[in-house]
Design goal:
187 residues, alpha/beta, Aminopeptidase, six-stranded mixed sheet, two-stranded antiparallel ribbon, 8 strands, 39% helix, globular
């Protein structure tokens, strides 16, 4: 079954809106919204080279507007990948994890397991596993309420210096690997 793919940059890169987590480590200022837009665009570029059709959110739109837009157009077979970067008050928190709905489909479980393994392996960071929405730091996530296949990828901790060194060094390789993985699920 051919599926439509939507890749969302969690938060925005608009300083007047919700830019997500912010961290200064190793004298570098990281903003989640900028990182997610960058990674989304790298993945989309790779998918476009494979002639895949990918839909994305508009960078400055608030989460509420993105969800309203998606609710109007999504089909149950569509796939939504929401990109995020974790943050914590301690620089010791590290690794990648994927959040799925509380009652996930087999498709969501399988995709989530492959995503978390791909990120962990390519960035050489801790695999924190796949968690349900209720096990996430927020307990309830608006994006999980969509009527489609939904996964939320927490790439790594922007508050962890080593996670970010590895991400910065390998982000293009990661985008290539994630694009190939996603392509397998939508063709």
């Amino acid at each position: 079954m051919k599926r439509r793919l939507y890749i969302l940059a969690g938060h925005t890169n608009d300083p007047t809106s919700d830019e997500g987590a912010v961290s200064d480590n190793a004298n570098i200022h990281y903003i989640e919204g900028k990182l997610t837009v960058e990674l989304r665009d790298l993945i989309v570029k790779e998918l476009n080279l494979m002639d895949a059709i990918v839909y994305t959110d508009a960078n400055p739109l608030s989460l509420n507007k993105v969800i309203l837009w998606l609710k109007k157009i999504l089909k149950i077979s569509d796939v939504v990948l929401d990109l995020h970067f974790n943050s914590f008050s301690s620089t010791k928190a590290n690794g990648t994890e994927v959040i799925i709905p509380n009652t996930p489909s087999n498709f969501e479980k399988t995709l989530a397991l492959e995503l978390v393994s791909a990120v962990s392996g390519n960035l050489n960071i801790k695999n924190r596993g796949v968690k349900s929405e209720k096990e996430s730091a927020h307990g309830k996530l608006a994006i999980m309420q969509l009527n489609c296949e939904t996964v939320l990828l927490e790439v790594c901790f922007l508050s962890n210096p080593q996670d970010m060194i590895n991400y910065t060094k390998f982000k293009k390789v990661l985008a290539f690997k994630l694009a190939n993985l996603l392509y397998k699920y939508i063709r």
